[in-house]
Design brief:
Elements lengths: L1 H26 L4 E3 L2 E8 L6 H16 L2 H4 E5 L4 E14 L4 E14 L2 E8 L1 E6 L9 E2 L16 H26 L13
Antiparallel strand pairs: 1-2, 2-6, 3-4, 4-5, 5-6, 5-7, 7-8
């Protein structure tokens, strides 16, 4: 009788632990590792706009978010429905009283069709900058180190490296969500979408 009660309570505990772990997993950052890149993707369906209107919104996003669409956009193919831009996330994390800062280049690719768009944000390296190490610039491939592998990058603590990775994924998700809101006509300056 007592062993049945213990087994029953143990099963409840394990079930609760599984449910708690899975619910925590849902709220964690979602990304994929693909060919050495960290990738965050979002497809937007049923936008209700033409390819040309979505294209204009994408260009508007780059201008507002990066100050100049011309300095960021690497590929601009209106007819083919493709815009690719390259940006730099600055000061994602800071360590040692601000003497260490982590930065990362990222690529935003937007594929555009009538009524739909796909956003792909990729990053390959993290750049820990320090005024006292390696001429202020050392770049490491994200997929070769923590948390993707158990290897630690040179001159970074495990904690610092994990914080930099998490900050990068968060920035990538913010970029994708902000761009998605602009594409749907919900983000940015509302007057941009109004007829006048």
């Amino acid at each position: 009788m007592l062993s049945n009660l213990i087994n029953k309570n143990m099963r409840k505990f394990i079930l609760l632990l599984v449910l708690l772990t899975s619910s925590l997993g849902i709220s964690q950052s979602k990304y994929e590792v693909e060919d050495g890149n960290i990738v965050v993707t979002k497809t937007i369906e049923n936008i209700g706009e033409t390819k040309d209107e979505i294209y204009k919104r994408v260009k508007s996003y780059f201008t507002r978010s990066y100050g100049s669409a011309n300095s960021v956009i690497q590929t601009d193919d209106k007819e083919g429905g493709l815009v690719i831009g390259k940006g730099l996330y600055l000061n994602m994390t800071t360590f040692l009283l601000g003497t260490w800062k982590t930065n990362a280049y990222h690529i935003l690719r937007i594929d555009i069709k009538d009524g739909r768009a796909r956003i792909i944000c990729t990053a390959t390296t993290i750049i820990p900058n320090s005024s006292s190490y390696l001429d202020d610039k050392y770049e490491y491939a994200i997929a070769n180190y923590l948390p993707i592998t158990d290897k630690r990058a040179p001159a970074m603590t495990k904690k610092a490296q994990e914080e930099a990775f998490n900050a990068l994924v968060e920035k990538m998700q913010e970029s994708v969500e902000s761009l998605a809101q602009t594409i749907k006509g919900e983000g940015g300056v509302k007057k941009e979408y109004a007829d006048w």
